Task: inverse folding
């Protein structure tokens, strides 16, 4: 039975790493004292060790031990044996490239589908979708595929935000980018604002946090959904 | 002898399509009345025909005829015979995917290296660099490679901008993204602000327009260069 938290961000403005969601995480990971951390997305290019320390500092507050997957001889077995998994944010291309390189896409999908609790933030949430084609990240490495874990039947756009109303910048808004995506792809996209997350529990997929989320379906006007709404019908 | 304009954007705030650079383009394309337009980047997913009309409307003001490459039976021959080439902006992934699909990377590189004037804006500028790994665009299609035309010995970041100083958004700034790029890649990146362009003329590469550009070299503090500075030493 799937049990997945798909969070827009690890950190909200003016708050510490994972601080806004720690109470939720204490409940979510209540059945394990140890969490397998996948630090491959390397935000700002930091090392796997340093990123794991950041995660450990946050999880110490709810008495969890964090083990970086890079410290295991066999990462496939590490995932199979994990009682809880956290995939942190950073660069989605770097993350998915490492998952392919280490042969972890299949085992991650299987293990999480079978019920191991999975927390993703930002890039770690992006990869829960059908593919990474709605990431906001710069494509700094070329991965063997854009296909992702397919744990939900749509795509995720984390850190979703509206355009700056007074901006003079001519780059595309997030909404324009997702509309372009739908010229070439048909799956729905869930725009998750910072502070929101999806909770996948068995067949239910519920929006959590205090904010609405923006849903993009091909050939439809985008619309908002409220917290506690189930969106498992989207596909 | 190379003759290339690499523009950050087609359009600056409060001005029409290509309007800010039309006088320059009249000079740049002075030896031809016809321009081959490559509309593959499809901004907002518009059709090749409609995008070509947009380009034609602008170029009509300097008495040039615009021919969309999609109207030719053989796009390779269209490029070889062109007297001037314009690759418009839109989505860099869609653009490079179509160039690979139609087998045009090699012939574009050769034709432009041999002296056919080439104008790129935004995505059309991105592809002048070594690869597209510093595009700002959403990866809405999976291209067979991120390698680009390699017409200059560095990468381009168009629409370059500073972070919003009062933003509460936790997504990465442009500068953070380029720093992440340099954890995995070594070539310099030229951050071109909207209204700036590079003019490649034989071996010289000169910044043009009224604004400075920001240069990112691996293991160096980023720095600004002034207009009229030659940056052909960057590699």
Result:
């Amino acid at each position: 039975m799937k049990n997945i938290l798909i969070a827009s961000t690890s950190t909200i403005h003016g708050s510490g790493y994972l601080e806004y969601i720690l109470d939720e995480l204490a409940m979510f990971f209540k059945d394990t004292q140890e969490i397998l951390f996948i630090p491959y997305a390397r935000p700002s290019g930091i090392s796997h060790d340093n990123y794991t320390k950041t995660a450990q500092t946050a999880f110490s507050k709810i008495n969890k031990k964090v083990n970086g997957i890079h410290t295991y001889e066999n990462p496939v077995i590490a995932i199979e044996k994990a009682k809880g998994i956290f995939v942190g944010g950073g660069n989605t291309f770097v993350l998915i490239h490492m998952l392919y390189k280490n042969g972890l896409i299949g085992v991650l999908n299987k293990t999480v589908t079978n019920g191991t609790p999975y927390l993703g933030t930002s890039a770690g949430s992006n990869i829960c979708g059908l593919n990474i084609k709605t990431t906001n990240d710069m494509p700094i490495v070329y991965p063997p595929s854009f296909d992702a874990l397919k744990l939900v039947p749509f795509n995720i756009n984390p850190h979703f935000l509206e355009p700056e109303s007074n901006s003079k910048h001519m780059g595309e808004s997030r909404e324009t980018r997702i509309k372009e995506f739908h010229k070439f792809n048909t799956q729905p996209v869930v725009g998750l604002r910072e502070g929101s997350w999806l909770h996948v529990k068995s067949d239910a997929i519920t929006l959590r946090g205090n904010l609405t989320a923006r849903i993009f379906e091909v050939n439809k006007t985008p619309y908002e959904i409220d917290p506690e709404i189930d969106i498992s019908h989207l596909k």
Remarks:
- The radius of gyration of chain A is 17 Å.
